[in-house]
Protein 1
Amino acid sequence: MSRPWTSTDRARCDEIVEGLTRPRPMISAKYLYDERGSRLFEAITRLPEYYVTRVEQSVMQRHAESIVASIGADCVVIEPGAGNCEKARSLCLRLQAREFVGVDISAEHLQEAVQRMSAYMPWLRARAVAGDFTRGMELPSDLPLERRLVFYPGSSIGNFEPDQVVALLSHMRALLGPGANRAGLLIGIDLPKPVHVLQAAYDDAAGITAAFNRNILEHVNRIIGSDFDPAHWKHRAIFNAQHSRVEMHLVALRPQQVRWPGGGRMFATGERIHTENSYKYALGDFVSLLAKAGFQQHRHWCDEQDWFAVIHAW
Ligand code: AVJ
């Protein structure tokens, strides 16, 4: 590695090792998204079984006029976890937004995506900010305080624990700035639906989600210097009805010793590492969380099967 070792690297290592050495081992879902993981996730969004992206897009398309009318003109769109900015691009176009700020941990790709946006919409001032919004990042100091809209599509909020969600939503509300002139929050929520649909969406026939899940081990190997062999782990997705969430796990296919500098642990056959929760909120439950975070009013739009909701809250 050519990059100098930083205190953030240290914190990441400590966090991962702490999770791996628990009686019920886990790795935070954010480590699914290295370079390869992000590419695999994009492949997931095109799978026939993964309805999430397609249904959200169809809701945004079908109800575009009404969504745009609800939000209003002259917006400053802020997107945490912007990635390739594809969803923001069509939103900014429809809204005829004034400014766009994409925030993401990996700034390189974001920078390119943001440049493509400005090329496509010459009137739009588009900028990239490197940062982790869950840890409180800084927006450009010259960003207008008026008419701010936080855009959080894709049901990404479903990856957080319900007890973190209110804090996160409050944080988003704080980004909107003071005053009554806020444009609000536009957020995508994946709703509860038949278990076989969820099961297929998180365990597709082509095995892309399995590769995506196993790839977390290669990412972890690079971060903490461990020697996980992904071939010795099987992908498992289960719907936990009690918590209304899809869980991803990696199941050990044989007994194995995994080592890393300064430690390691034994895994027995069948032992699992929990890698992701994807919560499915009933609309009313999510609206209560929004209210707790200070969003008193909302409008929402769904597909005809009520699989996915796009909510505008303010
Ligand atoms: C990016 C968090 C919305 O939970 O559906 C896709 C991630 N995990 N397949 C989701 C994911 C497995 C995805 N989110």
Protein 2
Amino acid sequence: MIVMKFGGTSVANSEAISRTIKIVSSKLDKKPVVVVSALSKVTDTLYKIADLAKSGDFNAAMILVGELRGRHEAIVRELIEDDAKVASANASLNNIFDELATMVRAVSMLRELTPRSMARVASYGEILSSTVICHVMNFLCINTALVNAREMIITDDYLKGRPVISEIESRVPVLVGEAYEGRDAVITQGFIASTINGEPSILGRGGSDYTASLIGMALDVEAIEIWTDVDGVRTADPRRVSNTRNIDKLSFEEAAEMAHFGAKVLHPLTIEPAVMKNIPVYVLNSTNPLSKGTAILQAESIEDGIKSLSFKENIYLLNIFSTGMIEVSGFLSKVFKVFADNNVSVDLISTSEANLSLTVDDTQDITEVVRLISEFATVNVHTDKAQVSIIGKNVVIQRGVLRWAMSAFNNINIYMITQGTSLVNISYVIDRCELDTVLPELHKYLFEFESH
Ligand code: ADP
Ligand code: ASP
Ligand code: MG
């Protein structure tokens, strides 16, 4: 068995869906479990719909719902050439849109959007895409069963919960096994899940990759394929740096660090379940299925060296000063207890005698953390910084890396430098406005000079 996950751009419209189904049908002998994202940008639209409803603007929210309906119905019309089957697919869509409209009405009446209702609204993108694609596959004579991901993927919270692995491991093989009986393929939704009480939840933005690896782990599949819109993982984000190259192979650890330190190509937690069962992860291009992509494997088969640059544009840099830090034990534990108690995770850390600097993703609310730490120290929060990371197996002990890297930072202020203890990354904090100067320069010094 294999898992094949198709992201938003791979199912964006009729043409993309046809291409995707062709790729799936070329691998039916491997018994694929197909995981689909919402059509490109649909989840963003659902978040807008939720916001409009929360502000009480039911009509504006319903205009966007109408646009979503139009997009999905067009695909049904364009790809299913059988009136009865079109009617059946549209009937499924009607039920889903009726439910969504009821949710939007409830939120706009109450003018309140709880995490529970947000998770419910955000889930419709994957419910719609999987329904449409399943109907099209069956029309094309690929006998396909749709399995509800909410019955397989269980989380401990509505919006950014952790998956409950024991539940997932016991449910997935049973549900997929039953669905596969007499079928050619099984399809399910990425991103969406439910709490242990059976209420809708989600895995966080970009979470379909994570769904794919959780299902892959539970089924102990031969491979997890992440089909997207680039030829594989590249030496940097091709949207920000020109001249990037494809990476043939990465270790699990390198890929996890890249994703954790900002590379949007994979959800940061995708690699964790794959490592548990040592399952190779392939990043492949659905618009160019013949390109060989990137294989993410155990570290033994991977060479040392710099592989890629990641960056995070939206971070807080916190500088914490305390005279109490000088020769007083317990200051650091006091600071980190505040972070732990408030569920705020820290990215980079560096300390000196009386100063502690750290970075935090700006998606996290740090108001309470800052308030509590200010009770025993001085805290300065900088909101105009970015972090850049050089990732590669044993990069920290590669001779010359720091020298080449420093050439790229010529005339640019560096506020913090850290080396991961895993030896896989070196990170720098700089002014955000310098990011588009630093990234291409670093890429040039680290990847584009022959002598390296
Ligand atoms: P999907 O919708 O298929 O999940 P995403 O947009 O989430 O696709 O991820 C693919 C995008 O990730 C690419 O289009 C690319 O712009 C971006 N990206 C960021 N960093 C990298 C990288 N190092 N290598 C490849 N792509 C990257
Ligand atoms: N549709 C979700 C999102 O846009 C999940 C995903 O695409 O992976 O975040
Ligand atoms: Mg993605």
